[in-house]
Amino acid sequence: MESVSVSRTVDAEPETVREAMADVQQFMASAGFDEVTVDGDDMTIVNGFGIAAIELDLTLVDRDDAELAYEQDDGIFEEMWTTYEVTAEDGGTRVTATTEFQLDVAVVGAVLDATVIQRQRRRELNAQYDWLERVVAE
Fold first, then answer.
1. Which of 18, 39, 45, 94 lies most in the core, judged by the most C-beta atoms within 10 Å?
2. How far is CA 98 from CA 83, 106, 118, in A?
3. Taking phi first (over 0 means left), then psi (-120 to 50 degrees means alpha), and beta for anything else, what does residue 111 get?
4. Residues 6+ apart with CB under 8 A from 73
5. Hey, which residues does 96 pair with through a beta bridge?
């Protein structure tokens, strides 16, 4: 399994951060995906990469150690899940997102590798944190 983790301290109380993240549609869209559809616990995200587009079907799941968590049901990964942990910290709230994934080599082949996925995922997570900072400041 490959992993990418990004943390940021947001200048807000944990409950304020949790409330913002509870708007899953907006929170997921803030990552910069081309399309985000949320229907209950089911989500679909679409993201273009040059001439190709990647579509992932995801399901929100309950995990004791995470404020928000989802896993892939269908897509380019053999396995993929993401967790967001929210913890109080002096002066704000620490949010840590971790995505673990195993590429499905038969699907991905030479087009994408783990390094490309990790780089893209860091951009997406940082965009979500930028959105969180804007929303909790309002």
1. 45
2. 5, 25, 11
3. alpha
4. 42, 57, 58, 59
5. 7, 85
Residue 40's domain spans which residues?
A: 2-137
Could you tell me if 60 and 45 are in contact, meaning their C-beta atoms sit under 8 angstroms apart?
no
Q: Are 72 and 79 in contact (CB under 8 A)?
A: yes
The residue type found at 103 is L
Q: Residue 134 above 60 pLDDT?
A: yes
> Which CATH number does the domain housing residue 34 bear?
3.30.530.20
DSSP code, position 32: T
Closest CA to 133 of 11, 2, 7, 47: 11
Choose the weakest-confidence range: 37-51, 65-79, 103-117.
103-117
Q: Decide: 14 and 134 in contact? Cβ < 8 Å.
A: no
Number of domains observed in the structure of the chain: 1
The one-letter code for the residue type at 132 is L
The predicted pLDDT at position 100 comes to 97
Report how far residue 87's alpha carbon sits from residue 113's, in angstroms, rounded to the nearest whole number: 32
Query: What's the rounded Cα separation, in Å, for the pair 66 and 69?
Result: 6
